[in-house]
Amino acid sequence: MEVVPLRNHNKNVFNRLEDKKKQKNTVLEKINRVNNQLCDIDDSQETTLKNIKSITDVAMINYVGIKKKKKHWRLMTNVKEQQRRVKKREINVTKLYFRIHREI
Predict the structure, then answer these.
(1) Number of domains the chain is built from
(2) pLDDT tens digits, residue range 39-60?
(3) I need a surface site. Which of 31, 34, 61, 67 has the fewest CB within 10 A?
């Protein structure tokens, strides 16, 4: 087994924390992007708009939930799964968005 100098260890921890911040920002950016798309839809489609908004809220709540529930080390292993889920939700929301646009 190789002995890792403390300096390297600290650097690794710092890098991991930086990565976590970046991932959090990308998730928030995706949610904001979807919300901005939703703002472009006419008010005449209020019911569908509400449905879509609730979907983005769910995405946000799930993200925060994952962040709060999992321990520090579990979050790191679960980040890929998290990103996959967010991507899935974003696709679903955009599908709904385009469907509404076709109806209008």
Answers:
(1) 1
(2) 555 555 555 555 555 555 555 5
(3) 61
- Verdict on whether the full-model pTM lies above 0.90: no
Q: In 10 A of CB 81, how many CB atoms?
A: 10
Q: Are 27 and 81 in contact (CB under 8 A)?
A: no
Which residue would you say has higher pLDDT here, 37 or 2? Answer: 37
* Domain extent at residue 10: 6-103
- Dihedral angle, C-alpha 89, 95, 96, 98, nearest 10 °: 140
Residue with tokens 């292993």: 77
Q: Supply the DSSP symbol for 4.
A: P
Which DSSP string do the residues of 6-70 spell out, in sequence order?
A: HHHHHHHHHHHHHHHHHHHHHHHHHHHHHHHHHHTS-GGGHHHHHHHHHHHHHHHHHHHHHHHHS
Q: Let me know: does 92 contact 55? Beta carbons within 8 Å.
A: yes
